Amino acid sequence: VKAKDLPPGLITGGCDPYVEVKLGNYKGRTKHFDRKTNLPEWNQVFAFTKERIQSSVLEVFVKDKETLGRDDFLGKVVFDLNEIPTRVPPNSPLAPQWYRLDDWRGEGKAVRGEIMLAVWMGTQADEAFPEAWHADSASVHGEGVFNIRSKVYVSPKLWYLRVNVIEAQDMIPSDRNRLPDVFVKANVGMQTLKTKICPVKTTNPLWNEDLVFVVAEPFEEQLVISVEDRVHTSKDEVIGKISLPMNVFEKRLDHRPVHSRWFNLDKYGTGVLEGDPRRKEHKFSSRIHLRICLEGGYHVMDESTMYISDTRPTARQLWKQPVGMLEIGILGAKGLVPMKLKDGRGSTNAYCVAKYGQKWVRTRTILDSLSPRWNEQYTWEVYDPCTVVTLGVFDNCHLGSAQSGNGVSRDARIGKVRIRLSTLEAHKIYTHSFPLLVLQPHGLKKTGDLQISVRFTTLSLANIIYNYGHPLLPKMHYIFPFTVNQVDGLRYQAMNIVAARLGRAEPPLRKEVVEYMLDVDSHLWSMRRSKANFFRIMSLLSGYFLVGKWLEDICNWRYPVTSVLVHVLFLILVMYPELILPTMFLYMFFIGLWNFKSRPRHPPHMDMKLSWAEAVGPDELDEEFDTFPTSRSQDLVRLRYDRLRSVAGRIQTVVGDIAAQGERIQSLLSWRDPRATSLFILFCLAASVVLYAMPFKAITLAGGLYYLRHPKFRSKLPSLPSNFFKRLPSRIDSLL
In CATH, what is the architecture of 2-138? Predict the structure, then answer.
């Protein structure tokens, strides 16, 4: 903590003291004072890992920093490790005490001066631990010290800014002999959006278009509105401009429109609001009619809805009460692969990042270890159980000024884990090792295992059930939904803002880390992902194919006993149709009970087979890791383009076949084939008479028995309805 009554130095007569803490081979030093003082105060904490202690004594030296020559020893205090007390939170911190300095030579005689300090065996839950100097990181100096500590970050509060461009008046172009082709361009920071050119050439154009931006608190950018004239295809001329601060806009919480306002424009962007006293200074100016608001009823998405971690709207007054608590213990990792070379051998400086909702956490960096142990615990409030927590492991490449100063080093990805909270049983602690998989340009690589403990605690079962019956996103997403292109564009802008703001923290959560956690490239084309999604669909449909195959076996009497039982069940259901729905739901109930014993015991992890990452070729991987726009050679791009054309050609054929079947159904009554339509409407007339005259049970019984008839009564040729349907015309013969 501090010292007092220290003797003056032998050379200068003053005292520039610092403390050196020594435990075995580990040695830590406090800062020293440039000014001469014998009452120094340091308030620094030193932490030594218990597993690596190689000494039975702790030595605390007080030294005097000398400009010339060797530093003077002022005294020391020695502690026997067996006598050091243990502190376990929530016990209060150990009170520091004054200790008299002994002669540093160990002769047992006291010297002048005292030092106040506290020594204890503690845990990582100690309040002093996060900011302490760690013996494991003794080799890190300068700015790198801040990059190894654990930190908690909070994403900036994001808003959607909606600019409704209604109309403008008195848009006079520089060439007064022509009417302008007017459009509006709006800019917020790095985001620029434009309206369409007014379809009518006029000085009083009308648009009524919405432009939506993402902005973050505290608001740093201004909204710049400019009205421009398209003189020709390569030249736009500014007619008027205005810059508006964000704090003048109304914050909207629901779908009710805000009031629109007229703004005066000029060439230099200093236009004023209608009614402003400065309006009198403008004898004439163009003006624009806008309705601008900050949308508080939407959730600004910076991550995909497939694995979203937060669904709350921006406005805090619209938040509901939390439904539970998420606790994650980041225990450690094992079997990590070396990520770089250090002194001729492989090394990894690993840290873990967890993201849920607006809260990000970053563990401390464990230096030069392939089996790091973090043992850090974090908690989050849960507002919706159908959300996902993401954990990523990275290699810290910013531990020294030489590394970080060149601006090239990027923290390398080691792997990522996602856990959906709805897959966790309430109040149960899951302690599990998750494989860390990372896809690299040369293939899939397992980089180790992440060991974590997870517990999801529900506060109210009623609130959980209530959530399952309500929309995932706030109601504004359904009342005034965005288009798919808008959602993608706004998400990309939100990710950029979050990455920029977190990158300005101290220590920064770097852009490459934020982008990896938010899956910034998930929307880009990937042959591997396309194959994975195709086989997901095939796996989904395989169950229906199996049912169809089973029915075919029943109809072909491959298993006579089963066929007889199906006939009996069919007869019962036809005679008592009120049993159909109860039987179906009871059957699903028993299937659910049967599957309970084989339920997953651990949360699911990244699946290399499902991701189609094992059989992916090097060329497909190179394409997936290519930049956008491409940076590859022209010949390689042509080859990939031809391959994409062949894949798209097959998709095009399938889509065309689906469209043809739908058009054939439409042609039944469209008289495109007059004979087919005549036959069909006559059949409909006859069917209506038969169905009216005969009991429905008899018709159902006859149709079912005909479908289940024995193979002896079947023909190998297609049925009459199938032949008739395939002869119907589609519009494919009208395609060029």
Answer: Sandwich (2.60)
